[in-house]
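Katanin p80 WD40 repeat-containing subunit B1 structure dump, as promised
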Amino acid sequence: MALTSTTITSWKLQEIVAHSSNVSSLVLGKSSGRLLATGGEDCRVNIWAVSKPNCIMSLTGHTSPVESIQFNSSEERVVAGSQSGSLRLWDLEAAKILRTLMGHKASICSLDFHPMGEYLASGSVDSSIKLWDVRRKGCVFRYKGHTQAVCCLAFSPDGKWLASASDDSTVKLWDLIAGKMITEFTSHTSAVNVVQFHPNEYLLASGSADRTVKLWDLEKFNMIGSSEGETGVVRSILFNPDGSCLYSGSENTLRVFGWEPDRCFDVLHVGWGKVSDLAISNNQMIAVSYSQNNVSWYVVDLNQVKKSGSVIQGLIEDKPIPAPTSAMGATLRRNYERPTTSCTRQDPEGERRSPSSEDEKEDRESSAEITNPEDYKEIFQPHSVISRTPPKRTEPFPAPLEHSFSESVLEKPGPAVKIVTPVIDRVGFPFLKYDEALAQIRKGHDTMCVMLTSRYKNLDTVRFVWASGDVKTSLDSAVSMNDLSIVVDILNIINLKPSLWKLDLCTSILPQIEELLQSKYESYVQTGCMSLKLILKRFWPLISDTLTAPPSVGVDITREGRLKCKACYKQLKNLSNVVKNRAEQVGRHGSTFKELQLLMAPLDY
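structure tokens r here:
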């Protein structure tokens, strides 16, 4: 079989089995783009070298699922936050635990290291942000202001500010020296998943579940750009190292944006699913995604990606693009002033305070098991010895040939296991007509075809009612079909536009949400949780105020509204018992239900 030498722009590099149970978090090392840390429901943190088949190091000590991980800038340390609210910090070079930090009351869902290295910030489902001094082993400040889970944290390049993104649809900017909030950005209409500072200029980017990426001027504190046209939730964003453009990762799609004016330079379809993190190395973008206990690496060749010039036709109206003010594309916007003091790495033992007996017990229960000594020495040990030869540079990952033999590699921690899928030559196979081929494909899938046909008809009926503009009637018709899949499809649409929610909808949908939360299907549970979260956020203040208001004098105009609020309150009380029981579960859903339990706490008062 002949092979072509044509290269491709993006490809899947590798897939591994990262944990014995579901993966719950992961992060790429941004400095090298070659190091990956994964956290799992097995309470472990595993360290991997990109493209290497086996785990380098396995870090233990957590007693609940690891919900958030972060490397420091030198990639010599890694911190992991658990569902129980504890933080553990490891020294990867010394292969040992450095710190165990306690203080959060709920799951930790975001982490970041300060540029100077000795401080780190953590954000929790309980909506609080804590700043920790690693040397003193304690919390030095707590920031309050968000009303829901803090999804992402990022320190500014000069280390003076901290940006936080939350499920409450806001981005907040905190002054670390003054210890207070500087400003709040509220233009997003759904949960904000990620924030990142521009590497040089006073700019901040944020990506949200509302399918937009927004850019904020940090001198005037206003929005200077907003992308449209994202095909799904924005999960990752990354500035190009020179700050010339912004990459946005959503489901199976990579977009390249410019600003002032807003423009989209390029759009690439990459089959990475729900991408979780991005890094750049050797002018290649390294991306990672996970599903269940598998983690996949993807590579995008940035040499073949448009990062300037004309916009993509049809996405944004073509406008004349002003010439840059200098050859380097400098702007009038202010740049960060990097601290001049060097941040030397001190001996961790010298930094530590005298540990208590409880601290010693926690540290004894934590360990760093080196599972691949050769890779460990190659990556971490060179920093500890004097090298008389120039350091070995990493090479770009070679692109596969467009029609080369396909090879599916599935690796497990420990000995490498390779599963090779052979390519079968089609010579000698009889040619089938379209109808015959379709009949062959459908063999054994009759039940599924009947189910999908029925679902299509039901959705068509709901769509017809929806076209009349009556959301309540269309939702009622979906409920009357006794098919939860139809209800889930409708709720997924309404959840994308929270303004569609009305109190009338709540009385119809809350009993359905109770069924969704107890479903065996993960997507049903996720949709039910999102809908319940939006209902509590939008209507609990109204329900509470209506039920606690004194009775009106004369004609009771508010009677109908009060009856609706009473019905919603009763249904929410029933749901609170379901949420309480599910919050005791271990895993990703347990964390979500714990967040809902916090939101539903006022129901008991």
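The two ends are 73 Å apart (CA to CA).
lmk if u need the other ones
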